């Protein structure tokens, strides 16, 4: 569990009896939206700032209506460069243009910006690493998942198009001074994918900024739910981006199955809230949102589903406090920060028995890990938790204890700073 490199410069403050180092750190990230990868880098920035380091972001896109509050309110300064470079050409070449945007951002940061970093932390796109090395900052790369595995299969032409990109991803990833992955699952995938690399990544589990969670006020959404929903409603919550790989339709199928498994009284009190990242620039977000609305209508459960697009941080916290159960539907998720957030709010989590959730959720202790990817299997576990309040509350308490013991923000911050101090002495 490490995360930040540092190079010692004149920013060292020598204190009698000890040496305290203030390091200039830039986090280079493609798009500061509201996904799990963005939440991790924002939390890393907050952790490093709390330790006394000078931290800022450089990004190629920052939509003020689609970002985390800390990147908007000045908590962490953000510089946007290269947003004029297109994201695609006639809906093609997304990866190539993402590479170009990141190379441009890296070169701009090191050639034009006056506040040169001692350390650069980058993630998602590794192509910028050899350009960063020309200017000698220490480089940390955080691998959420190999990018080449996220690319959907296509034509033979696309296969040839990806060959040089995949090669460059492996070579440039290996040029980082330090590599982190987000889970044991991702570590195994990393080793199987980047077979030519000898560097050994360390696992740095994402955390959640618990102080931020604790300070959130009741949102207008929570007040609305209080007014419109029956007392003690069975609120089921799904939080994920509107992407097909997140398998959100599974939550709808599970809800449809519940109609036959719950008593009439419990069914009447049941509502599924589907909240997720939605970017109107992303065609899949728009299309999949419409697909899910249509699916709910076909299943006859439209009146039992509330769709929310890109809820605010306050609304998200309110949903986590208000719900009874979190349904987490992606298979083979690299890590998954939402289950941790729900567990911190003492909510049991139901997820597929694969990927990162196998490391965060303890089956029959903090929630249920389901082997089958079908609505009936998920629905049966939901019914157990709805009908057994003691089990639900016990799972919730166990979940919070697990988050505080293994995934706490303090532990995350301490390990980050430890790594910074170690690298600063090199």
Automatic annotation (TrEMBL):
Top-rank taxon, per record: Eukaryota
Membrane-crossing residue ranges in chain numbering: 93-111
Pathway: Protein modification; protein glycosylation
Subcellular location: Endoplasmic reticulum membrane
Catalytic reaction equation(s): a beta-D-Man-(1->4)-beta-D-GlcNAc-(1->4)-alpha-D-GlcNAc-diphospho-di-trans,poly-cis-dolichol + GDP-alpha-D-mannose = an alpha-D-Man-(1->3)-beta-D-Man-(1->4)-beta-D-GlcNAc-(1->4)-alpha-D-GlcNAc-diphospho-di-trans,poly-cis-dolichol + GDP + H(+); an alpha-D-Man-(1->3)-beta-D-Man-(1->4)-beta-D-GlcNAc-(1->4)-alpha-D-GlcNAc-diphospho-di-trans,poly-cis-dolichol + GDP-alpha-D-mannose = an alpha-D-Man-(1->3)-[alpha-D-Man-(1->6)]-beta-D-Man-(1->4)-beta-D-GlcNAc-(1->4)-alpha-D-GlcNAc-diphospho-di-trans,poly-cis-dolichol + GDP + H(+)
Glycosyl transferase family domain ranges (all copies): 228-402
Keywords associated with the record: Endoplasmic reticulum, Glycosyltransferase, Membrane, Transferase, Transmembrane, Transmembrane helix
GO CC, one annotated term: endoplasmic reticulum membrane
UniProt xrefs under InterPro entries: ALG2, Glyco_trans_1, Glyco_trans_4-like_N
Topology in membrane: Single-pass membrane protein
EC number: 2.4.1.132, 2.4.1.257
Domain Glycosyltransferase subfamily 4-like N-terminal: 34-193
An example molecular function term from Gene Ontology annotations: GDP-Man:Man(1)GlcNAc(2)-PP-Dol alpha-1,3-mannosyltransferase activity
Family to which this protein belongs: Belongs to the glycosyltransferase group 1 family.
Function recorded in the entry: Mannosylates Man(2)GlcNAc(2)-dolichol diphosphate and Man(1)GlcNAc(2)-dolichol diphosphate to form Man(3)GlcNAc(2)-dolichol diphosphate.
Protein name listed in UniProt: Alpha-1,3/1,6-mannosyltransferase ALG2
Record organism: Aphidius gifuensis
């Amino acid at each position: 569990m490490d995360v930040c490199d540092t190079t010692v410069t004149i920013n060292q403050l020598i204190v009698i009896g000890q040496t305290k180092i203030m390091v200039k750190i830039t986090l280079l990230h493609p798009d500061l939206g509201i996904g799990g990868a963005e939440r991790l880098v924002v939390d890393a920035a907050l952790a490093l700032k709390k330790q006394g380091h000078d931290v800022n972001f450089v990004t190629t896109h920052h939509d003020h209506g689609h970002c985390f509050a800390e990147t908007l309110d000045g908590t962490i300064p953000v510089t946007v460069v290269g947003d004029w470079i297109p994201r695609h050409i006639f809906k093609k070449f997304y990866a190539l243009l993402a590479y170009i945007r990141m190379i441009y951002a890296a070169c701009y940061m090191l050639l034009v910006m006056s506040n040169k970093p001692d350390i650069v932390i980058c993630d998602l796109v590794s192509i910028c690493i050899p350009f960063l090395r020309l200017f000698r900052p220490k480089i940390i790369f955080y691998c959420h998942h190999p990018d080449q595995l996220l690319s959907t299969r296509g034509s033979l032409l696309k296969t040839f198009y990806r060959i040089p990109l995949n090669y460059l991803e492996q070579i440039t990833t290996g040029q980082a001074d330090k590599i982190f992955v987000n889970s044991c699952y991702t570590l195994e995938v990393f080793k199987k994918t980047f077979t030519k690399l000898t560097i050994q990544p360390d696992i740095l589990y994402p955390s959640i900024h618990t102080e931020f969670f604790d300070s959130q006020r009741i949102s207008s959404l929570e007040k609305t739910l209080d007014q419109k929903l029956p007392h003690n409603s069975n609120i089921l919550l799904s939080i994920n981006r509107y992407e097909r790989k997140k398998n959100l339709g599974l939550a709808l199928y599970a809800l449809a199955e519940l109609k036959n498994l719950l008593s009439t009284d419990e069914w009447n009190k049941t509502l599924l809230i589907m909240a997720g990242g939605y970017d109107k620039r992303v065609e899949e977000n728009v299309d999949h949102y419409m697909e899910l609305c249509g699916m709910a209508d076909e299943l006859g459960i439209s009146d039992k589903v509330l769709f929310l697009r890109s809820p605010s941080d306050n609304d998200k916290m309110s949903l986590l406090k208000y719900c009874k159960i979190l349904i987490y539907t992606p298979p083979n998720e690299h890590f998954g920060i939402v289950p941790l957030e729900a567990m911190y709010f003492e909510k049991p989590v139901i997820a597929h028995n694969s990927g990162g959730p196998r490391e965060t959720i303890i089956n029959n202790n903090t929630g249920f890990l389901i082997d089958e990817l079908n609505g009936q299997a998920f629905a049966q576990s939901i019914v157990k938790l709805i009908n057994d309040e003691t089990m639900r509350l016990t799972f919730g308490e166990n979940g919070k204890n697990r988050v505080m013991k293994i995934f706490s923000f303090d532990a995350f911050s301490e390990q980050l700073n430890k790594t910074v101090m170690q690298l600063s002495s090199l």
